[in-house]
Protein: FrhB_FdhB_C-domain-containing protein
Organism: Fragilariopsis cylindrus CCMP1102
Amino acid sequence: MKAIPNKMPIDPLDWPDRFPAKEHCSKCGLCETSFVTKVKDACAFLGPSMARIDDMEERVHGRNRNSSNITWSSSSSSSSSLSSGDDSSEPDEARFGVLHEPIWLAQGNRVQNAQWTGVVTGICLAMLESNQVDAVVCIASSSNTIGSNNFASPEPILARSTDDVLRGRGVKPALAPSLRVLDEIQNDPSIRRLLFCGVVCAVQAFRAIQSDLDLDEVYVIGTNCADNSPTSEAARNFILDGVQINPGSIDKVQGYEFMQDFQVHVKTSDSYITKPYFTLPGTIAEASIAKSCRKCFDYTNGLADIVVGYMGAPLVEKGGGVTRMDESSQTLTIRNKRGAKMAEIAQKASRLTIKGKAVGKGSHEKLASATVASDAIVMAMVGKSAIMAFGMTRLGPKGINFARYSIDYHILRNYLYTLKVEKGNEESARMKLPQNARDIVDHYQENDAEFANLISKIQGEI
């Protein structure tokens, strides 16, 4: 018989003050269960934080990523403008994580009212309907939200039916307690095979306690994840005050994303709205991004079996109009045999269509550095007020190379934030980073004077 934990779960109403990671708690749900006793070893924001990924990868995938496989621009980073030389069009493991196959472009099939085309939902449906799993952990919209749209109010559920899975359609842009159902899983003898869907921090914590659930089979779908809002209210305020949507339309919002054309795309029940996100006020960015997300260094969800995202997928212009989320392909990253099995089952069930390999063009390094220098959160730390004044969509990288830009940008921005949290102590800050993130920081610090200057400014202000 399993030992009964001697520590009580923490009341979610006490977030974040009573949670171990305090203001950097990502509200993953672990501490709201009896598994709170595991938090010191499982939390992505305590102790070694995301540096744990280096040791966990081999246990999960059978091998570590090839950290020496990393792509840099063909021209020197010392140039003061965007490089004209293209990066490699193939993904590199140092950034994208363990790759069992090429990164694919994919679309979901037969998933009505999906935010995108239903890739994640389609895989979950195929696994459940083919009796490969007994239950699916996914995030639905809260049933407790009364009288208003609940697109940003996440509620974890154990899905046992097609209708249950369909409740999980759409991206919830606020911190989501996916692990809140752990005790329910452990106490239900009918659940022997589980599919877990989660963002980076939830997947890392789940992998840390997975063996304690004593399940026969476990599959994990991850998403490329960055910059969630701390609360559902913050997400709604971002739409109202940042995107400046008509207040009368807020209850029609079905989802939003920071897209590859450097615009926020907002999908409502009767319209589609876009707004360049570098025009958003800095105060909006500050309030809209959870502090846990500013300490995240695993944008690509390296511990999931299969990962769905969009940053490496192309945006194709259609007749002068904007490509919509629900018309676009997403990227499918398969990390191991379990991930390959999920993709195969979903294709056989006609829930998933593979459109070809994800490729790219353009150079990413200078754009990553320039974005960091102009980022509202970074400007708040170093007092800089520069505005990016060039056509980023026209000049910037595409496809896989846009993904490289986005990965590097988030690592660099978050390193600066972590450095500030660690009082300018580079050794302490670097201990929180997985090796691939340290390598990327080192490259820019050595080759990009502007980024090195930002580090010096933060250290000088401590």
User: Anything to note?
Assistant: Residues 104 and 358 are 5 Å apart (CA to CA). Residues 1-6, 75-85, 383-394 have pLDDT under 50 and may be disordered. The chain has one domain: 12-85+93-461.
